[in-house]
Write a structure and sequence with these properties.
Layout lengths: L12 E10 L2 E11 L4 E5 L6 H9 L6 E6 L2 E2 L10 E4 L11 H11 L4 H14 L15 H13 L5 E5 L7 H18 L2 E6 L2 H7 L2 E6 L2 E6 L1 H6 L4 H7 L2 E4 L6 E4 L4 E3 L9 E10 L3 E7 L5 E7 H6 L7 E5 L5 E3 L3
Parallel strand pairs: 3-8, 3-9, 6-7, 7-8
Antiparallel strand pairs: 1-2, 1-4, 4-5, 9-10, 11-12, 12-18, 13-17, 14-15, 14-17, 15-16
The structure holds adenosine-5'-diphosphate (ADP).
The site of adenosine-5'-diphosphate has 11 residues, from strand 2 and helix 1.
């Protein structure tokens, strides 16, 4: 596959005390972050936390209330969308229905006054990149959902952006296609070498795709880092709960996050002080693992994930008492 974008143009993107206000609502609160050049970043958080506002400010589709956005050494805060070196991939339903695939991809070039033959050639290169050359003459309505998304991607990439912005690009797809397109996005980012900034509320999606995850909550960045670091050592209770798969223990001197799969489940009592006991409330079989919900008294409801082999060696009944322990290195202190 050919490299269609000049890697020398790929630069880091920085948010410097970037703020978005809508009237009295502060949607994004003076956030700072440096998106490394050529990486796949996911902005992750619940609905309303400010992800889309952040992305739209980067794209230039939303005015920045305060602070700056830098691309390399250029301050792009107030530049129009087409002059920033960024491009937004819009949802597939934003394709123009009355013109064919190649004309959709070439559209921004047409607006710039690029010669017809030149823009058609460029559009075909982009269609090749997303494996859609054979569909160049079709109308969007004659394509599947996944194919329409590839066209939407080609349409965004034709401007040769340094940073591609994607707002929940997989949310309209069925689960099977979502996982397939997810792999394709990652492959495309790797091949092009440009930066992708992808907004999602799905933890799985962020863990699978990102080189860096930026977890947002209430207009702020709670934690940013490599997926493994964020998952393994969440810094706050919010991150531990939102990223999933964690218990938060609160009764000790310091709240602790403990991965559900690092909680060791014993069917027989352990010496006092080495375990907490609890009653099994629920057992959920998930194929390779089995999840136990456990009423652990003062610690509330905890979740332990066991391998299927371990569980079925001596199955645990709902209502039985189990003893939970963990290695000290698996417990991560949370900020108060
Ligand atoms: P997310 O993408 O994480 O769901 P948004 O950036 O869309 O979050 O929204 C962040 C906050 O800003 C929310 O409280 C939302 O209601 C508010 N908001 C977003 N867009 C507008 C707007 N155009 N006018 C007023 N408030 C808005």
């Amino acid at each position: 596959m050919k490299q269609t974008i000049d890697t020398a143009k790929i630069q880091k993107l920085e948010l410097v005390a970037t703020t978005k206000r809508y009237g009295d609502t502060v949607a994004v609160k003076a956030i700072n972050h440096s998106f490394k050049a050529g990486t796949y970043s996911c902005l992750l958080g619940p609905s309303g936390c400010g992800k889309s506002s952040t992305l739209r400010m980067i794209a230039g589709h939303e005015h920045v209330s305060e602070g700056d956005i830098l691309l390399g050494s250029a301050n792009i805060t107030d530049l129009p969308p087409s002059a920033r070196g960024t491009a937004m991939m819009f949802q597939s339903y934003a394709l123009f229905p009355h013109i064919n695939v190649v004309e959709n991809v070439a559209f921004s070039q047409k607006m710039k006054g690029v010669d017809k033959a030149v823009r058609a050639k460029k559009a075909m290169e982009l269609l090749d990149l997303v494996d859609m050359v054979g569909y160049a003459d079709r109308l969007p309505a004659q394509l599947s959902g996944g194919q329409q998304q590839r066209v939407a991607l080609a349409r965004a990439l034709i401007t040769e952006p340094s940073v591609l912005l994607l707002d929940e690009p997989l949310s309209a797809l069925d689960p099977f296609l979502r996982i397939k397109m997810r792999a394709e996005l990652k492959r495309l980012q790797r091949e092009l070498g440009i930066s992708f900034i992808h907004v999602t509320h799905s933890q799985d999606e962020a863990l699978a795709l990102a080189d860096d995850i930026i977890v947002m909550n209430n207009g702020l960045i709670e934690q940013a880092g490599a997926p493994r670091d964020v998952f393994n050592a969440p810094k706050t209770e919010f991150v531990a709960k939102f990223i999933g798969g964690h218990n938060v223990l609160k009764t000790g001197p310091q709240p602790l996050a403990l991965r559900a799969d690092r909680l060791m489940v014993s069917r027989s009592a352990l010496p006092a002080g080495e375990a907490i006991s609890g009653k099994v409330l629920d057992v959920e079989y998930l194929g390779s693992t089995v999840t136990l919900s456990i009423d652990a008294g003062n610690e509330g409801e905890l979740v332990a994930s066991m391998s299927d082999a371990d569980f079925f060696a001596s199955p645990i009944e709902i209502g039985s008492t189990v003893f939970l322990s963990w290695k000290p290195e698996d417990a991560h202190e949370l900020a108060a």
